[in-house]
Amino acid sequence: MTAKAKLRKKFILSSIILLIAIVCSSLLSLNLGIITISPLEVWQTILGNGTEQQELVLFQFRLPRITLAILIGIGLAVSGAVLQSITQNDLAEPGILGINAGAGLAIVLFIFFFQNTMSMSEGLSIFIMPLFALLGAFTAAILIYILSWKRGVSPIRLILVGIGVNAGFNAILIIFQLKMDPQDFRQVTVWLTGDIWNANWSFVYALAPWIIILVPLVLLKASTLNLMHLSDEVASGLGSNVEVERRILLIFAVALAGASVAAGGGIAFLGLVAPHIARRMIGPLHQYMIPLTTLIGAFILITADMIANNLLSPTALPVGVIIAILSTPYFIYLLMKA
Amino acid sequence: MKQLKTLFIMVIFLLLISACGQDDQTSQAKGESETKIYTDTTGVEVEIPKNPERIVTTQYLDAMIALGHKPVGAATHVLDNNYLKEKQEGVVDIGNPVNVEKVLELEPDLIITANPEEVEQLSKIAPTVVIAFNAVDVYGQLTEVGKVLGKEDEAEAWIADYKEKSEEAQEQLNGVIGEDETVSIFMTYKNILRVYGGRNIGHIFYRSLGLTPPPYIQEKIADDPEFVEFNNEEISMEKLPELAGDHIIMLNYGPETSEEGGMFNDIENSTLWQNLDAVEAGNFHVIQQEPWFTYSPIASKESLELSVDLLTK
C-alpha cells in the first residue's frame, strides 16, 4: 500500500474512533446530573415517552450544554490549529494571542459600566454580553495586526505582539476587576475561567452559524495552510499571496475563537492541545488534520464539561480549569519526550 | 479492530454504571392554585402563585427570612455568611453559578432572582421574577420581596420597626457626634481605597443614624435621592485629607489589605493618615465586613445595633 493510501486509512480509522468517543461521552454526559435519569429512561424520553420533567432536564438543560460544548470545542480547536499554522509556531493559540483577554476585557467593561445603569429586559441582556465579547475579540485581533505590521506581518512579530497585547489587556482587566464590588468580581471570574452554565438553545443557535460556516471555509484553505505551515518563502515561492492569505486566515481564527469565547467564556489551552494531538495522530497535512482537530476538540470539551458539572455538585467547576488540569500531564509528557 | 472492541466494552461498562441510579421521582401534581400578576424590576409581567410555598432565590435570602418565609434553596454566595446562623438552617445550596438541575430537584413553585440572564433557563422550572439588586435600596428589597410573597404588611412593619430603632439609636448618640460634624466612610480592599455613599455601608450611618457625610458625598447623594445609583468611588490615598470628616469609619474587606503591601497597611503607616484631625483625636473606627458590608435587611439591622457601641467607644 502506498504511503498516501496508508495515511488515508489511518485518517478514516481515527475519525471513526473519535466519532464513537464523542457519541459515548455525549451519552454519558446526558445521563449524569443531579436529577437521576436511567439510560432506559433517557432512551424512552428520546422516543417521546418521557415525563415532562425528564424532557425538561434532557432537552432543555443537558442537551443544549452538550451541543454547545461540541460547537465551542470545534471552534477553539480549529482556531488554534489555524493560528499555529499561520504563525509557524506550535505554541500559538487564541488565549496566548490575547483574543481571550480582549473578549474578557470587553465583558468586564460591560459589567462595570453598563450593567448597573441599564435596566434591560431579559431578552436583550442575554445577547449583549456575548456580543461585547465578540467585539472585544476582534478589537484585540485588529490591534495585534496593526501593531505587528511592518511591510507585512511576519509570524514571529504576530506572536510577540500578541503576547504583549495579552499581557496589557490582562493588566487592564485586573485594574477594573479590583474596582468592582466583590459580587461583580465573582461574576467576571466565573466568566473568565470559562463556564457553559447558561447553555440554552438560544446560545446554540447563535453560535452554530459561525462554526458551520467558518470551519468548512478553513477546510477549503487546507492547501494554503499546508504551505504556510512550512515557511513564508516556500509559500510565496509556490504562488501563495502570503500576506493576504494570512490576513484571511487570521480573520477566520479570530472569528471562531471570538464566537466560542463569547458563548463559553475564556477557555484556554483547548486551542493549543487539540491540534497537537491531531498532528501526532495524523501528521501535519491539513486536509486530514483539521477534521481530526474538530473531533478531538469536541471530545475534550464534552468530557471536561461533564467532569466540571458533576464532580462537585451543585457547584459547577469552571471548564477552563478542568481542561488546564487535563492538559498539564500532556505537556509534561511532551517536555519529557523532547 | 482491537481498539474498537475495547471502546465497545467501555461503552457497555459506562452505561451499566449510569444504570445504577434509580429514578424515583413522581411527576408534580399541579393544583389549580390562585395566581397574581407581578411586574418585576425589568418591567416584565409574570404570573406567580398567590401563596407560594417552595421558593428558590439567588440573592434575597436575607429579605425572605426577615419576612418569615425561608426559601428552600439559595445561591452559595448568599449562604456564605456568618450573621444568619440558624436562621438559614435547612436552606439548600443551589450553587454559584446557579445549577439548574439542583433548582429543579427542589421542585420550587416560584423563583426570585437578581439576574436577568438567569431567567430563560429558570423560568422553565417555575415562574421566575427579577428584582435587580441595583434597582432598589435595602427598603426596596424588602418591599419588592414582600409584594412577591404577598407579605406587604410584614414588610411595612419591619421597615417601621427599623426606622423606630434608628431613631432610638440617634437619641443614644446625642452629643457623641456634634450636629455640624461630618463622618466619612472609607473601605479598603487589597490595594484599593474607596469612599462610600448612602448605599451599603453608608445606609446605617447616613440614613439610619442621620449623620452628615462630607460635602463631596452630600453632592453625590443629592443627585441620587433613591439610593440606587451611587455606591462608592475609588480614590487615591492623597484624597484622604480632602474627604476625611471629623469622624472616620474604615471598613477593611479581606485580610490582604492589612498585610504588607495592602492598602490599609499603607494608610496606617503614612503620616498623611496620622496627621488627619479625626485620627489625632482618636475619632476613627475600624469595622469588619460582616455584617456591615452586606446590603440586606437583617444585616442592616444587626449593623444598626452594633453602631451605637461602635461610635460611643
In brief:
The complex is a heterodimer of chains A (338) and B (313). Chain A has 14 helices and no strands.
Structure characteristics:
heterodimer; A: 338 residues; mainly alpha; ABC transporter involved in vitamin B12 uptake, BtuC; 14 helices; B: 313 residues; alpha/beta; Rossmann fold; 2 domains; 5-stranded parallel beta sheet; 5-stranded mixed beta sheet; 15 helices; 12 strands; 40% helix
Textual characterization of the structure:
The complex is a heterodimer of chains A (338) and B (313). In chain A, 78% of the residues lie in helices and 0% in strands. Chain A has 338 residues and is mainly alpha-helical. Chain A has a single domain, classed as ABC transporter involved in vitamin B12 uptake, BtuC (Orthogonal Bundle), CATH 1.10.3470. The two termini of chain A are 31 Å apart. By secondary structure, chain B is of the alpha/beta class. In chain B, a hairpin with a 2-residue loop joins strand 8 and strand 9. About 5% of the residues of chain B have low confidence. At the A-B interface, helix 1, helix 2, helix 3, helix 5 and helix 7 of A face helix 1, helix 4 and helix 5 of B. Chain B: This is Iron complex transport system substrate-binding protein.
What is the number of independent domains of chain B? 2
Q: Determine the CATH superfamily of the largest domain in chain B.
A: Nitrogenase molybdenum iron protein domain
Shape of chain B: globular
Element pattern of chain B in H and E: HEEEHEHEHEHEHHEEHHEHEHHHEHH
Number of helices of chain B: 15
Largest interface: A-B, 51 and 54 residues
CATH topology of the largest domain in chain B: Rossmann fold
Name of the CATH first level of the largest domain in chain B: Alpha Beta
Mean pLDDT of chain B: 85
Q: Please give the largest β-sheet of chain B.
A: 5 strands, parallel
Mean pLDDT of chain A: 85
Measure the end-to-end span of chain B.
81 Å
Largest sheet of chain A: none
Q: Enumerate the spans of chain A where pLDDT stays under 50 for 5 or more consecutive residues.
A: none
Query: Structural class of the helix and strand makeup of chain A?
Result: mainly alpha
Strand numbers in spatial order across the main sheet of chain B:
5-4-3-6-7
Oligomer: heterodimer
Radius of gyration of chain B: 24 Å
- Count the beta strands of chain A: 0
